[in-house]
Predict the structure of 3-oxo-tetronate kinase.
Amino acid sequence: MGVELGCVADDFTGATDLAGLLARSGVRVSLRMGVPDTAPEACDLAGIEVIALKCRTEPVDEAVAETCAALDWLKRAGARRYFWKYCSTFDSTADGNIGPVAEALMADLGASQTIYCPAFPENGRSIFMGNLFVGELPLAESPMKDHPLTPMRDSNLMRLLTPQVTGAVGLVNRLTVARGAEALKARLDMLAAEGVSHVVVDAVADADLQVIAEACRDMPLMTGGSAVAMPLPAIYLREGLITEAAKRAAPPQVGPGAIVLSGSCSAMTRAQVAAFLPQAAAFKLDPLALAADGVQLAREWLAAQPADTAKIVFATAEPDEVARVQAELGGARAGALVEAALAQLAVDARDGGTRRFVIAGGETSGAVTKALGVTAMEVGEEIAPGVPWTWCMSGGRQIAMTLKSGNFGSEGFFAEALARLKAMT
Ligand SMILES: Nc1ncnc2c1ncn2[C@@H]1O[C@H](COP(=O)(O)OP(=O)(O)O)[C@@H](O)[C@H]1O
Ligand SMILES: O=C(O)[C@@H](O)C(=O)COP(=O)(O)O
């Protein structure tokens, strides 16, 4: 029936989050890591295609080039409309890729207006009067203010977006959204007539996202977190645009060994690492030691662990520790050292027989998944909202992997993820 929705995600945890939420509808969702080498004509296409990129913290021109290449692939696949997925905490660097990428995609698609809606009520992200909240805290007062690569120091989405785009930025607030899809559409049309092409849309609950999806479903491009895309498949199903049901892939039979690799320093990941330490053999990576001596010590530690035990390697650290490291190495170098080390350890673990991987952190997940040479993932059961198990091939081996966004999951996530997988296989 063709590709109804083509999605591009700016990081890998974001892509599994989006694919997992879209797959809740029961339609077939295909998740590809990076722009595929294979032409779309030669691929088995699904009604919903998701391409994962690692471009959240790249320089703007590289992020734009990569997302446009992904768009080009999706256009050749015949996608009828598109979705640009970024973080529910609107993570962007000072230079900011969210707006420039949206503008480039709009130009390519001839779209005169798009919406921005990172709300994800199930995970506590809501938008009111254009301000993003994490739980009860404004974004800039939440732990996201201390993110190692994308510290968020403003909660107002219009103020964050305005310097990132050339077009005018506006808002449709919750009072309008609460009046339903027709009222929202009318307000978007009014803003379009005033020349406003970038519209932040408030949403505090799933019902708001339903209204937004109904009102904006015919836009050539929508942008946001995963949750605003979640109602779209049901709309397509209702209208007969997609009929193909997903054949949920059975979890692979994989060996018992498991590894958690954590490069996220979010408050939730810090709690999750602390909760898992008593249950696994553990190695803490120190970025300063990595800069001085490389990853060899960690590799030797890993090689000495029996393949069939649970282990964790983490660089996860408190904000003051991260700040100390960054003062010495710079944020980008510290991040790159940790990512490269965790990527190498993932490959070592796989080569040593480990087949179950739990990765914490978006950038971290991108680095690990790329190093493992994973090009596509089957989306399995969600462990927590936005965090599914996935099944994929790496170096000719079948592995199970879950990519956990820094902020997602509850404290017991790592043990819970492994227990769920064990119960499935
Ligand atoms: N101890 C540390 N010091 C400095 N940077 C770190 C440290 N530990 C991890 N990092 C880096 O912080 C970044 C965390 O980003 P990411 O993996 O996307 O996590 P999240 O999902 O929480 O955003 C990564 O680039 C990682 O390499
Ligand atoms: O929307 C979200 O919050 C996630 O899907 C996401 O993008 C995760 O990014 P990280 O927090 O960097 O893992």
Notes: The radius of gyration is 21 Å. The chain has two domains: 5-238, 258-424. Residues 31 and 50 are 5 Å apart (CA to CA). The mean pLDDT is 96.
